[in-house]
Fold:
Amino acid sequence: MILIPVFETSITSKDEERFHDILEIEELNRIIRERIDKEEGFGAKLKEYLKARFKIG
Amino acid sequence: MKMQVKFLDRVFSFVSYKTEEHVAGVGSITQSGKHVLFLDFDNTSFEMVSKEMNELQKRLGLGNYIVLESSEGHFHVVFFELMSVGEITEIQYHFGMINYIANSLKRGSWILRLSKKGKKPEPVMREFMHAETFNVCSYAHWKFFSELYNISDEFTPKNLDKGTKLRMDLYTTVIE
Structure:
């Protein structure tokens, strides 16, 4: 068995990315009503919407 | 996960990589600066949460609440009254939600997850409990959750604030 030493500074977790936005309730309810895929639901739709808003790939 | 092994007076570390994904959630904060009450219960049963929330509603004279199941044995609760940070932390402290308090104070709002997280599905509503109240409630939170979970307008709280905006969060989380 080959043991590979990994020293303390070599790997660290990526910093948490956090974004928030203040949205109008009418806009949110429009997204809710636009749910197409019932299996994915609103959360997936919201995530997609926010990722586009924050230009996350 | 990191594991360390001591061998021939040397310490070797093994690191397993975790994947990260984006998660979307809704914030408790309202335009007035007050918050609605979010509670986060882990490793418990629906019956226990339901009983505790019913008692809390009666004891504090609170109005409507919903119980969401976020994954097996994990529940979120939303009350729609506007409360101060002090009032909220007192209730959460009573239920032992120390980590939820600490993380949320740092972020300026309590957040409830709405999208999937790894194998955990989107939260589903398990219970809606109606009670009449004249406490001021958040219009934006009520409109949002009642639309999302198809709660009838007949249960709309009598005394709603004028806020129409909600904070939506997008954050990375580590999937084990």
Q: What stands out?
A: The two ends of chain B are 9 Å apart (CA to CA).
